[in-house]
Design goal:
This protein is an alpha/beta fold. About 45% of the residues lie in helices and about 15% in strands. The chain has a 7-stranded parallel β-sheet, sandwiched between helices.
């Protein structure tokens, strides 16, 4: 089984690359695509590279295309099976082909200095909760954020607040989760972020 390694950034607050989790579907509302393009443009303008799942479809393709159009670095990580399925983006700065989904997530964690969940489906949720859990356990000291386009993440945040109220999640970890609805506010909050204490002391 793969173990998370090299997940702590070398310089606190430095954002060289952000790992983005998002959907292989564009969603029903065109504002999702517009918002991820805006975020990609902001990242490129600030010289922050993108790490993502390597796809050319849905919001994944939108964010990659927009970052590349802005002159940004875009690194994709994709299992061989999905490359064989011809959904890999052909024009990335670099595409790393890995054996499976577990290796994909580990590598995306290593490459990014923070994590942002954009609108997406079950895969986006799975990636989000894994890196947020790793943060709480002290496996990494990187920010985790929700890009709350049009209130997309509000139902999830209500559930998170319910977890806090019922004693299953410490409020410090809820507070450590960055939530923003504009690219500038999101990146400013990520740059100012400081890690909470790990759940289990070392």
């Amino acid at each position: 089984m793969l173990e998370p390694q090299n997940l702590t950034p070398s310089t606190a607050g430095a954002l060289r690359r952000l790992t983005l989790f998002t959907g292989s579907s564009p969603g029903r509302d065109p504002r999702y695509a517009a918002a991820v393009r805006d975020l990609a443009a902001e990242l490129a303008g600030r010289g922050v590279g993108v790490v993502y799942g390597g796809g050319r479809v849905g919001l994944m393709g939108e964010v990659a295309d927009a970052a590349l159009a802005g002159g940004g670095e875009v690194l994709g990580v994709m299992p061989q099976a999905l490359v064989d399925g011809e959904i890999a983006h052909p024009g990335l700065t670099r595409l790393e082909v890995v054996a499976d989904m577990h290796e994909r997530k580990l590598r995306m964690g290593e490459l990014g200095d923070g994590f942002v969940a954009l609108p997406g489906g079950a895969g986006t949720l799975e990636e989000l909760f894994e890196v947020w859990t790793w943060q709480q356990l002290g496996i990494h000291a990187k920010p985790v954020a929700l890009y709350d386009v049009g209130g997309f993440w509000q139902p999830l945040l209500a559930m998170v607040d319910h977890m806090v109220a019922e004693g299953f999640l410490a409020s410090a970890y809820r507070d450590a989760l960055v939530v923003a609805d504009t690219p500038a506010a999101l990146l400013d909050a990520l740059e100012a972020w400081r890690a909470p204490a790990a759940k289990w002391g070392r």
